Amino acid sequence: MSKKNKHLEIQSVAGSNEKREKLIGYLMALPAVVLLIAFTVYPLFYLFYRSLYGGSIITREPKFVGIDNYVALVESRDFGQVLRNTAVYTIITVGLTMVLAIIIAVWLNGKRNSKLNNIAQTFIFTPHIISMVSVSTLFLWLMDSKNGFINSVLVALGFEPYTFLSSPDTALLSVSLVSVWKGLGYYVLLIMAALQNIPTSVYEAAEMDDTPPLRTFFKITLPMISPTILFISVVAVIASFRVFDSINIMTGGGPLNSTNTLVYYIYDFAYTYGKPGQACAAGIVLLVFVCIVTYVQFLVGKKRVHYQ
Amino acid sequence: MNSNNQAMDKVKTVIDAILKIFLILVMAFPFFWMISTALQTLKETLQVPPTLWPASPQFSNFAEVFKTIPVDIYLKNSLIVCTSVVLLQFLIIVPCAYSLAKYDYKAKPVIFGLVLLGQMIPMQLTFLPVYLMFSKAGLINTYASLIVPFISNPFGIFMLRQYFMQVPTEIIEAAKLDNASDFKIMFKIMVPMVKSALITIGLLSFISNWNNYFWALIMTNSDAIRTLPIGITLLKSSETLDRWNIIMAGNLLLVLPMLVLYIFASKKIRNAFVYSGIK
User: Fold this and answer.
1) Is the pLDDT higher at B30 or at B279?
2) Of A154, A171, B3, B82, which has the fewest Cβ atoms less than 10 A away?
3) From residue B66, how far is each of A71, A140, B47, B240, B277 by CA, in Å?
4) Closest residue of chain A to B99, computed from CA coordinates
5) With a CB-CB cutoff of 8 Å, which residues 225-254 of chain A face chain B?
């Protein structure tokens, strides 16, 4: 064999090797890709497609109705209230969770009573790994208007019993409070992780200057962790948009629609009223919200990387 | 002056401790209340003021739960679904993550984009199309409908890819010189190197599947397939008088495995959630 020929042969072996490598790469990714397309991409397209058709959940060949389902959404009084409820729930839950989580994280990150700090950290996180079913059922009992523990204490202390879930004025707030209780520890944990990334030298400088603690908090701590706070706030907003379990178990959207939120509305329209077209239209609305918020998250995330 | 300062500091420490104990109580009391109620008689649950701890703990409440709903079937279903998801997902996500980390091909950014999309789109958006798809295929009310949608765990792919990328490529090349096949390299050499990531992914997916209520609510309609979270809500609705002691006893059965897991691996679990939160 001539030298030239041998060189060619090696090249072609290398070429076929490269092809083989690519093929194996594709093959390894294939099962996951098929599943991701089946359970993420296809449903999104179908959601949009189905939102343009009428009929019930068992209709074999639904009729094309164009944007009628969207028009029906805009025209229904319920849907406006659903959007308002979702917004109010999100603002209360995320706002309260973030404020409390920042305060508690900074507090537990301090040097005082470090043993207690560890115990508090353990306990505050526990609800996060418990099913929302358990937490909702438990608070249904704690908030029971007649025999619930919270009202028993209030009455024993001479207060009026609180209405919690039985009044349209307080039900949404009550459901929010349950979410705050469940989720708080998770956000405390994330903020504490961010706090531990602040170099100690920054604090030592402040200590040398005798800066008062509150000033240290607002001038050093908060700015240093604000990118993380922004990032996880967005995560919390998306989680709030998705609220369903607690609503379904604790209130069923009531009383008087006061806790009917977006995902509950979608579920209700599809299964109780058997109108998947309108449910899918509402799903598209939720998708738009999720996309907007995720885009914000992306921007914030970029900034966060830059900041570090 | 100095001793004055010291006294001030002591007072501060005491107040700080009291507030922290209050915080711990707020977080722990509901759990205590669940356990206490689960052991009370029906009469005790209706008493005003409430009984903090039952006079004689009623362990028979748990037997009553088993009489009211088929807990053993729900428990079995929950275990089947959770273990299947945790184990089967590795067959799907390990090769995909390895391929994204160490192979070079054109469609890679598209596939990675798909993984990110999967992480972004919640099941609360996809459930209706998936329900209709499964219903056409006759898969509603089967284990498959509870397992298959979760085994392509996009977060798992994302995390594993990160870990695989940190493994030096020289190790793979050395193994290739020894004529090891690609799959052998992946399972025999790479997988042991990312064991901690696999444990994290397994833990997180076990917890989320054990607690998953929404998906099981959509996909199941008979006791033969229903999982424990659904069972607990059925226990609540089957009680016309609201026997809260029985409901809390059932609830405790759902909570206990997670609490035990948390007691034994609290640091590991918290680290896993921190990683998944600020990846």
Assistant:
1) B30
2) B3
3) 49, 22, 25, 17, 38
4) A25
5) 228, 231-232, 235, 238, 242, 244-245, 248-249
Cα distance from B265 to chain A (closest Cα, Å)? 11
pLDDT digits (tens, 9 = 90+) for A169-219: 999 999 999 999 999 999 999 999 999 988 888 888 777 777 788 888 888
**Closest Cβ–Cβ partner in B103, B121, B125 for A25:** B103
pLDDT at A125 over 60: yes
Extract the tokens encoding B268: 């590991």
pTM reported for the whole predicted model: 0.92
Q: How many CB atoms lie within 10 A of CB A277?
A: 25
CA–CA min distance B161, chain A (Å): 12
Candidates B209, B207, B208, B238; CA nearest to B223 is B238
Torsion of CA B255, A104, A195, B14, to 10 degrees: -110
Closest CA to A188 of A104, A96, A95: A104
Which amino acid type is present at position A215? Answer: R
- Residue A260 has what DSSP assignment? -
Tell me the per-residue pLDDT of A68-77, one tens digit each, with 9 for 90 and over. Answer: 999 999 998 8
Q: Do A26 and B232 touch (CB under 8 A)?
A: no
CA distances from A76 to A45, A83, A171, B138 (A): 25, 12, 22, 34
**Which band of pLDDT confidence, cut at 50, 70 and 90, is reported for residue A307?**
very low
| Dihedral sign of CA atoms A221, A222, A224, A228 in order | positive
Whether B237 contacts B229, CB under 8 Å: no
Q: Is the Cβ–Cβ distance between B27 and A127 less than 8 Å?
A: yes
Other Cβ atoms less than 10 A from the Cβ of B26: the count is 13
The yes-or-no verdict on residue A15 having pLDDT over 70 is: no
Helix H segments across A37-76?
Answer: 42-50, 68-75
Contact between chains at B255 and A132 (C-beta distance less than 8 A): no
Residues 255-274 of A with CB under 8 A from B: 263, 266-267, 270
* Cα angle, residue A243 at apex, residues A260 and A44 outer, rounded to 5°: 100
Q: Which of B239, B271, B278 minimizes the C-alpha distance to B64?
A: B239
Task: State whether residue A28 sits within 8 Å of chain B by CB.
Answer: yes
Q: Which residues of A touch B114 (CB under 8 A)?
A: 33, 36-37, 40-41
Judged by CB atoms closer than 8 Å, whether chains meet at B17 and A32 is answered as: no
Q: CB burial class (10 A; 0-12, 13-18, 19+) of residue B20?
A: buried
Q: Measured between beta carbons, which residues in chain A are less than 8 angstroms from residue B207?
A: 129
Residue of B nearest to A120 (CA): B24
Structure tokens at B217: 């609510």
Question: Residues B209, B150: contact at Cβ < 8 Å?
Answer: yes
CATH architecture of B69-238: Orthogonal Bundle (1.10)
Q: Which residues contact A115 (CB under 8 A, 6 or more apart)?
A: none
